[in-house]
Design a protein that fits this description.
Helix content is 55%, strand content 9%. The chain has 286 residues and is of the alpha/beta class.
C-alpha cells in the first residue's frame, strides 16, 4: 500500500475531534489520497458541502497556517500515492522476492487481518440491507469495475432489480434519477478511488439510500447507521494490489444472501437455466 501523505497522517491524528462538517471535508481529502494541489479551497469546500470558514478552521486544526500551505505541500509531494511510487519503492527493497510462496503467505495474512476488520455482524447487516432493497445499484471504477461486474452477475442470479452503473453510454445522473428511499448502493471502492465516486456516495446517502461499501483501509469511515463499510486487506509482495480477499468477502456475502432467499433462489436458478437452454441450446455453455 502506498505510504500515506503528511496531510492524511495529520487527519488521522485528529479524526476523533472533528465536527460533522470537518469529517466530510476529511473524507474528500482522503478519497483524493491527499492530492489536493489541483483544487482551490472553494472547490474542496463545495465538494464536501461545507462553508469556506469550516474549511479554513479545519486546516488550522491540522496545524497549517492556511489552506495554501497545505496545498503547496501536496503539490511538492504529488507523486505520493502513485503506482509509479509503489513500483519504485518495492523494487528498491533488498530481499524483494518473486517467490510464489511469498504471495501465498501474504494472502493468508490478508485474510487473517481482514477477519479482524470485518465482523460477522457487519456481513449479516450487509446481507439484510441487500435482501430488503428495492433496487440495488452497483458501482466501481478503475480496477474496482471488474469486481463490481462480478458482483452484479452473481446478484442477478439471486434477485431482480440489479443495476451496474453507469450504464453504457450513460452517466450516473441518468441512472440515479429514479432512486427511491429503499434502494441500496453497493460500492466497490478499492484504491485508487476517484473523486467522482465520493460525490456519488454523498448524493445517494443524501437522498436516503443505504450503502454497503467494499474497500480497503485507506478509505475514510462513515459514522452513519445507513452505511456499512467492509474493509479488506489488499497487500501484496509485488507492485500490484491483491484482490483475493475482497473476492472472498463477496463470496461469503453472496452465500449469506443465497441462504436467506431459500427456495426463491432455486426457482430463479431454474428460470435462468430454462431461458439459457431455450436461447443457446442444452449443453452449449459448460
Amino acid at each position: 500500500m502506498t505510504k500515506q501523505t503528511d496531510l492524511e497522517n495529520r487527519i488521522i491524528r485528529v479524526q476523533h475531534e472533528l465536527s460533522a462538517g470537518e469529517r466530510r471535508l476529511a473524507a474528500v481529502i482522503v478519497e483524493l489520497e491527499g492530492n489536493i494541489s489541483g483544487f482551490t479551497g472553494g472547490e474542496l469546500s463545495e465538494m464536501a458541502g461545507v462553508s469556506p470558514s469550516t474549511a479554513a478552521r479545519f486546516f488550522r486544526r491540522l496545524g497549517y497556517v492556511s489552506y495554501q500551505e497545505a496545498r503547496t505541500e501536496a503539490r511538492d509531494s504529488a507523486v505520493k500515492g502513485s503506482p509509479l511510487d509503489v513500483y519504485r519503492e518495492k523494487n528498491r527493497k533488498e530481499g524483494y522476492s518473486s517467490d510464489f510462496l511469498a504471495y501465498i503467505e501474504q494472502e493468508k495474512k490478508n485474510l487473517t487481518l481482514t477477519y479482524t476488520e470485518i465482523s460477522e455482524e457487519m456481513l449479516k447487516k450487509s446481507s439484510d440491507i441487500i435482501k430488503n432493497a428495492g433496487k440495488v445499484y452497483i458501482i466501481g471504477f478503475r480496477n474496482s469495475y471488474a469486481i463490481a461486474l462480478y458482483l452484479r452477475n452473481q446478484l442477478a442470479i439471486l434477485r431482480q432489480n440489479i443495476r451496474l452503473i453507469p450504464a453504457p453510454g450513460e452517466d450516473v445522473a441518468t441512472d440515479l434519477t429514479d432512486q427511491q428511499p429503499d434502494d441500496v448502493l453497493l460500492v466497490v471502492g478499492l484504491r485508487r478511488r476517484t473523486v467522482t465516486l465520493s460525490k456519488i456516495i454523498s448524493h445517494f446517502h443524501k437522498n436516503g439510500g443505504k450503502i454497503v461499501m467494499l474497500t480497503d483501509p485507506s478509505a475514510s469511515s462513515w459514522q452513519e447507521e445507513r452505511v456499512v463499510t467492509l474493509r479488506c486487506i489488499t497487500e501484496s509482495p509485488g507492485v500490484f494490489d491483491s484482490y483475493a480477499t475482497p473476492m472472498c468477502v463477496l463470496n461469503y456475502l453472496l452465500s449469506l444472501l443465497q441462504k436467506s432467499y431459500s427456495s426463491h433462489v432455486e426457482k430463479r436458478f431454474s428460470e435462468v437455466e430454462s431461458i439459457r437452454n431455450e436461447i443457446y441450446g442444452t449443453g452449449s455453455l459448460l
